[in-house]
Specification:
- There is one protein chain.
- With 261 residues, the protein is of the alpha+beta class.
- 18% of the residues lie in helices and 28% in strands.
- Strands 3-4-2-1-14-13 form a six-stranded mixed sheet.
- Strand 7, helix 2 (122-144) and strand 8 form a beta-alpha-beta unit.
- The longest helix is centred in the middle third of the chain and has 23 residues, at 122-144.
- The protein is globular and about 45 Å long.
């Protein structure tokens, strides 16, 4: 088997990150796949000097509304199938990259997803819940076909009280609502593994997003809302899972997964 290294980061604007030279760390690490969320750009608007490294493939799913949302995957892995999954992302907000690739022992469906935020309105919260329902149904259908699943991205949900600094103060805030947290409970019941918790257990104060307000990052008043999930058939293949809070440039930080396939 070969070890693969995947990184995921909500960049909150890829052109802004480019101006800050905040992706130069890519050149210092071995990365087989880099998944970005909230790029807020079309493919032709992505700067070509984000890093020196040249990946074989770039997959971009931009939102129909310019300057919003959007996801991208840079990778050296050769997929045999790619899609933007508009049957899940029904509003065409540029929320999903779907790539399928094979190794000698695995047929993998990989998803890079910027899940909806439900804080704006009840309508957006309903869309978020429906989006998750459509995605889980689709992922389960792929599992029935014998595929292994890897999901990464900004889930916009903190799963447990340990996953945010002030759980009591946020229990009525979208991102930590009972019906949202129940989605991740369901995923785990269905056999999806939260790779960071699988490796590190209940280590506290591990966050991936900090509000720009109130010096939240300096005081580490954050939320863990970015994840790598894998299906249980890949559980023994997980080598490591990390949060890279030292990397600046966005209100999120990157996360990574090392996995043997």
């Amino acid at each position: 088997m070969k070890e693969y290294t995947f990184y995921s980061w909500n960049v909150n604007g890829i052109r802004a990150v480019g101006k800050k030279e905040a992706l130069r760390w890519v050149d210092e690490r071995h990365i087989d796949l880099l998944a970005l969320q909230e790029i807020k750009a079309k493919k032709e608007q992505i700067p070509n000097d984000l890093f020196v490294k040249r990946f074989k493939h770039l997959f971009v799913n931009s939102a129909s509304q310019p300057g919003r949302h959007g996801v991208a995957v840079f990778t050296d892995i050769d997929p045999y199938y790619s899609d933007d999954a508009h049957h899940i992302d029904t509003l065409k907000e540029g929320r999903i990259n779907e790539l399928h690739f094979k190794t000698p022992n695995n047929d993998v469906a990989f998803f890079n997803i910027y899940f909806p935020n439900g804080q704006m309105s009840e309508e957006r919260l309903r869309y978020k819940l429906d989006f998750y329902a459509r995605f889980i149904e689709y992922a389960q259908s792929l599992r029935k076909e014998g595929k292994s699943i890897i999901i990464c991205g900004d889930f916009n949900i903190a799963h447990k009280p340990i996953d945010l600094k002030r759980p009591k103060a946020n229990e009525n805030v979208s991102g930590f609502l009972p019906q949202e947290r129940a989605i991740l409970d369901k995923m785990i019941e269905l056999g999806y593994i939260d790779t960071f918790r699988y490796i590190h257990g209940d280590i506290p104060h591990q966050y991936t997003w900090w509000s720009y307000k109130f010096n939240a990052r300096k005081t580490n008043a954050g939320w863990r809302i970015d994840y790598f999930f894998v299906t249980e058939d890949l559980k023994d293949n997980i080598v490591d899972a990390s949060i890279h809070a030292e990397i600046q440039g966005s209100d999120h930080c990157p996360i990574s997964l090392q996995i043997a396939l």
